[in-house]
Target: Paraquat-inducible protein A
Amino acid sequence: MPPFVKRDASAHPVSFPHLIACTYCDAVHQQADLAEGERALCLRCGGLLYRESQRAYQRQLPLMVTALILFILSSAWPIVEMDLKGVRTETSLRGALQALCAGHMMPVAILVFATTILFPLAEMLMMLYLLVPMALRRMPPGFGRLVRAIQRTRPWGMLEVFMIGVLVTLVKLSTIARVLPGVALWSFAALTIVLAVMLSFDPRDLWQYLEEEPPR
Model:
């Protein structure tokens, strides 16, 4: 019997390109070819394994640029103007954060800043960093780390929740003052729609595309 030889896994990594593990229950499955629009589900828990979405990232790039433009408009311009007995006041996202800080509500201000500015902007910038080189058929540095960071960051972006809160507040304020929608309110509404379309794209689909057509 030949002697047992111990191999260094780091020196000779073993990969299984045709196997995929479920992110919800860790069940391992054999990958199968799918038609356009089809999805593969886990046999154990029913979770999504992967979907056929070749070149879906190309549709995300114009959406990402549009979302960034709308985000800048939403952050820079007033959300609403209120006219109360001849006195006009403007409210913007930055002004709301400053009011929370001035009102000794720093934890709430930090939470609003993180969920409406920090995390959504971080996700958009990371996606843009990935999509532009991939559109040129190049591998962006730090691809794996950024895809995982996007997956962890996405649940914390709550711009749509903020938009619902703004609409509820405007309805209540309209009973005591004249409410005039600002530029940021319309851009926030458009941004919410664009983000809803973007959220239908799973960043894990980028892995599938890279395995099928590795960039130069």
Observations:
- The chain is about 50% helix and 10% strand.
- Strands lie at 19-21, 28-30, 39-41, 48-51, 80-84, 87-91, 178-181.
